[in-house]
Write a structure and sequence with these properties.
alpha/beta; Rossmann fold; 344 residues; binds S-adenosylmethionine; DNA polymerase, domain 1; 8 strands
């Protein structure tokens, strides 16, 4: 029954770039005993600053496993509605299972949050008091071979969350060594970027299919050569850089921010959780420029970060930063976000 409701709601939104695959196909089954938990980060900090009330509506622009959505739905019970977006079908499927107890209050949409304005034209009954975007990958994007984001198993290097754009393999195949080095340096802050790029450039001619294992081995080799030791896997930063580039994560965030402020109700809050310095800088400077124009009030003078305890329990919260701004104007024209061009 919930499944019918779920599909009906997906069908309701007809004209916002929905394609046939936006309905979770019946054949889209998760493996039995699938571990579908993604621990939401900074939940106490988020809920204390956004102060949702019973009956408030909200938009979770990155529903993932539905962890934050669940907490929002609890706070806005019994009637608050939630719009839950995600580009990834697997995330939506997992969220739909985890949010089953809230059926009737949640509308799931398989779309990019960069299409928020179009979505809101169709979803006129949502009067959002909160729009949340928790950026970055869900746990399964990092651990499962189908996304090509894991160095634990040797799999194809795709990394796309959705079906559009170039795969990581296509980028590694076609970029010059200089361009690859810049990519790893800018998006991954990888100090050995130049040398890693050089090895990739040389070795890719020899290899028929570039895989996660192949890439992880190259990075590990360069790290070993320089005797660099660290807690996380040596390939973490290179994988992160490719993921950000493949999924246009910075451009998407820039497109999304003005749309989020336009979509939210007066005195509603836009909350962004980032995991990367470039994204955080973009949010911080955009919020600041809006605050200068008195269009918003910044509710997080300094970004909130996970407590020591949360970091111990959930290591992936280590780099999370939360920034929240409250909308103070209904007439302001929300300017475009300037994205720094890195020439990649
Ligand atoms: C970190 S997870 C969210 C986890 C979620 N807050 C929770 O508590 O379970 C981020 C999710 O955002 C999705 N995502 C990333 N970029 C997106 C975009 N531009 N539009 C919509 N969803 C996006 C990813 O597919 C992923 O499922």
């Amino acid at each position: 029954m919930f499944k019918n409701y779920f599909i009906k709601n997906l069908l309701k939104i007809k004209n916002c770039k929905l394609k046939i695959n936006t309905i979770i196909p019946n054949s889209y089954n998760l493996p039995p005993n699938y571990m579908w938990s993604h621990t939401p980060v900074l939940t106490n900090e988020l809920m204390s600053v956004v102060a949702l009330k019973s009956g408030d509506d909200a938009i979770d622009a990155t529903v993932g496993g539905g962890g934050h959505s669940k907490i929002i739905l609890e706070a806005t019970a019994p009637f608050g509605k939630l719009l839950a977006l995600d580009t990834d079908l697997k995330s939506l499927k997992i969220a739909s299972i985890n949010l089953k107890p809230y059926k009737g209050r949640v509308t799931f949409i398989n779309d990019n949050f960069t299409n928020l304005s179009g979505i809101m034209k169709k979803e006129k009954n949502i009067k959002a008091k909160l729009i949340l975007a928790d950026l970055g990958p869900a746990l399964w994007h990092l651990t499962e071979s189908e996304y090509g984001g894991s160095f634990m198993a040797d799999s194809s290097l795709d990394m796309r969350r959705g079906e559009e754009g170039k795969t990581a393999e296509q980028i590694l195949r076609t970029f010059s060594a200089e361009k690859l080095a810049k990519l790893f340096l800018v998006y991954g802050e990888e100090k050995l970027a130049g040398e890693i790029a050089g090895f990739i450039y040389q070795d890719r001619k020899r290899v028929k299919q570039l895989t996660t294992g192949w890439l992880a081995n190259i990075v590990s080799y360069v790290y070993k050569k320089h005797r660099v030791r660290q807690k996380s896997h040596p390939a973490t930063k290179v994988f992160q850089a490719l993921r950000i580039y493949v999924n246009r994560e910075l451009d998407n965030l820039a497109d999304f921010l003005p749309q989020a402020f336009a979509a939210i109700e007066f005195s509603g809050k836009v909350a962004i959780i980032t995991f990367h310095a470039l994204e955080d800088r973009l949010v911080k400077s955009y919020f600041k420029s809006l605050a200068r124009d008195k269009a918003v009030k910044i509710l997080t003078k300094h970004a909130f970060q996970a407590s020591y305890l949360e970091q111990r329990k959930n290591p992936s919260s280590r780099s999370a930063k939360l920034r929240v701004a409250e909308k103070l104007s209904s007439t302001f024209v929300w300017p475009k976000v300037e994205v720094q061009e890195f020439g990649i």
